[in-house]
């Protein structure tokens, strides 16, 4: 590629990076792993820049590279158990509106409970803003399949949030922070009353 073509490619790719990071975080569930994934995908995109046709949808092209990179890494590292860096980061931050943080955390946790196919379709269509047709092309399935996955994901997400999250001792914030703390205290005491 010429210097002009490289610069045009760079100018088209840079605005897509925040969307790639959001999609990567939804796939990985870990901020550090997501950043690594985006960095690897960007390197691959740069190496393959000659194959990209300027004027076509670079977001769909970049998402396809990112998704393929994610599944390649997942196949290679299926034996590793990563540190939950995102959880560690959340415990060290102070926020102005703790209710908004709890609600966002509920959505993140509920999204993690969705099947991978539904979660990635919902993220690409909902958060990524990609049309169904482009998501279908990225994933390699029919458009109707993507529409179905998004529909099922939305319904499941709404049901999970309506029922509250209660996996692994987590009590939904809808019960109130104090009720959640007291519930966890009761569970730790094993039902014994402490004076």
UniProtKB/TrEMBL annotation:
<keyword id="KW-0731">Sigma factor</keyword>
<protein>
    <submittedName>
        <fullName>RNA polymerase subunit sigma-70</fullName>
    </submittedName>
</protein>
<dbReference type="GO" id="GO:0003677">
    <property type="term" value="F:DNA binding"/>
</dbReference>
<dbReference type="GO" id="GO:0006352">
    <property type="term" value="P:DNA-templated transcription initiation"/>
</dbReference>
<dbReference type="InterPro" id="IPR013325">
    <property type="entry name" value="RNA_pol_sigma_r2"/>
</dbReference>
<dbReference type="InterPro" id="IPR013324">
    <property type="entry name" value="RNA_pol_sigma_r3/r4-like"/>
</dbReference>
<comment type="similarity">
    <text>Belongs to the sigma-70 factor family. ECF subfamily.</text>
</comment>
<dbReference type="InterPro" id="IPR014284">
    <property type="entry name" value="RNA_pol_sigma-70_dom"/>
</dbReference>
<dbReference type="InterPro" id="IPR007627">
    <property type="entry name" value="RNA_pol_sigma70_r2"/>
</dbReference>
<dbReference type="Pfam" id="PF08281">
    <property type="entry name" value="Sigma70_r4_2"/>
</dbReference>
<feature type="domain" description="RNA polymerase sigma factor 70 region 4 type 2">
    <location>
        <begin position="105"/>
        <end position="157"/>
    </location>
</feature>
<dbReference type="Pfam" id="PF04542">
    <property type="entry name" value="Sigma70_r2"/>
</dbReference>
<dbReference type="InterPro" id="IPR036388">
    <property type="entry name" value="WH-like_DNA-bd_sf"/>
</dbReference>
<dbReference type="InterPro" id="IPR039425">
    <property type="entry name" value="RNA_pol_sigma-70-like"/>
</dbReference>
<keyword id="KW-0804">Transcription</keyword>
<keyword id="KW-0805">Transcription regulation</keyword>
<dbReference type="InterPro" id="IPR013249">
    <property type="entry name" value="RNA_pol_sigma70_r4_t2"/>
</dbReference>
<dbReference type="GO" id="GO:0016987">
    <property type="term" value="F:sigma factor activity"/>
</dbReference>
<feature type="domain" description="RNA polymerase sigma-70 region 2">
    <location>
        <begin position="18"/>
        <end position="79"/>
    </location>
</feature>
């Amino acid at each position: 590629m010429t210097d002009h073509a490289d610069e045009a490619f760079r100018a088209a790719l840079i605005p897509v990076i925040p969307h790639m990071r959001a999609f990567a975080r939804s796939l990985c569930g870990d901020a550090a792993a997501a950043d690594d994934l985006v960095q690897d995908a960007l390197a691959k995109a740069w190496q393959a820049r000659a194959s990209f046709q300027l004027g076509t949808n670079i977001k769909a092209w970049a998402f396809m590279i990112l998704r393929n990179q994610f599944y390649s890494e997942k196949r290679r590292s299926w034996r590793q158990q990563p540190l939950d860096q995102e959880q560690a980061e959340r415990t060290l931050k102070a926020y102005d509106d703790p209710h908004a943080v709890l609600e966002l955390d509920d959505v993140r946790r509920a999204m993690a409970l969705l099947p991978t196919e539904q979660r990635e379709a919902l993220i690409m269509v909902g958060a990524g803003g990609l049309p169904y047709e482009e998501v279908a092309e990225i994933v390699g399935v029919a458009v109707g399949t993507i529409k179905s996955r998004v529909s099922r994901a939305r319904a499941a997400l709404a049901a999970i949030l309506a029922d509250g999250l209660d996996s692994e001792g987590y009590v939904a914030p809808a019960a109130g922070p104090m009720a959640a703390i007291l519930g966890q205290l009761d569970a730790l005491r094993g039902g014994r009353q402490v004076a």
